[in-house]
Amino acid sequence: MQLIKRKEVNISKDTFSYLHLENEIKGKNIFFFHATGFNAETYSPFFLKLDELLAHEYSIYALDQRGHGLSRASAIPSDLTSWRTYFSDAKEFVDRFKTSENIVMGHSMGAVVASKISFDFENSIKKSILIDPVLQPQSLSFQLPFFNISNKLFIRLMSYLKKNRATEMINNAKKRRSIFTDKDDIFNHYTGRGAFKNWPEDFLRAYINGGTKVINNQTNLSCVPEWEAKTFAVSYVARTKFISKIKKSTYVPYASEGSTFSLDVRERLKRNPNYIFEEINGSHFFPMEKKDLICEKISTFISS
User: Treating both helix axes as pointing N-terminal to C-terminal, what angle do 44-53 and 201-210 enclose, rounded to 10 degrees?
Assistant: First the structure.
């Protein structure tokens, strides 16, 4: 029996792909948002384990965000000027399927998207889980409304002035190989390397299966390097002041190594009693590397 099904939905006149794990108990949903450069299917082993621990009580909806996975929405890098695009898409997605009990969850950039949903749908969201969110101090205070973020010179200037994890990610994304012979070629290329160094095979296979398209008899990553790099670049001016005002119980597990969740932001958010922080021993990719551990912690938080 195929537990997780792929479906499509129209959002903002565009066609998006999403994964749906449906359970018999109606009215209890989890909405999940993936990290930059990944796709919903990447996390399918995570979803299956979490579903098992939650005794199949919640249906799971996981969106392939614009420019990612198998979504067919317009994704022109020069049009992406902020993460508001991702926020807007996610809000319409959740609004389409939300019911009486809703939980939002995300990883990395997806965690920030989930936090925006928790803030916007305060009366509909029961709890939120933000897995190593991309939050630097400038996210909560840095504002440049008069700049055109699509200007390449401005992005280069910010890369020079604001040396942080995003700078490295932008440069890596621009250099990323995106065209391969087939899926096995991708698997062999990524196994044991870079971000995928410690990934179990089922996660890497899932990432490849949900994040590639065949064009002219070649297998292409569906999140093209230019779109991924631009997503990282506009993170410099992601406006996330709302995150300090979330009123729902929120669990934030963060990585002990290379976390995107800065200490400065963590200290500021400690003023909000709704936050529960926990350091997880591992890299930014601990949802893949330590699936059983983090699913156990998340299921306990949801059920408590």
Answer: 120
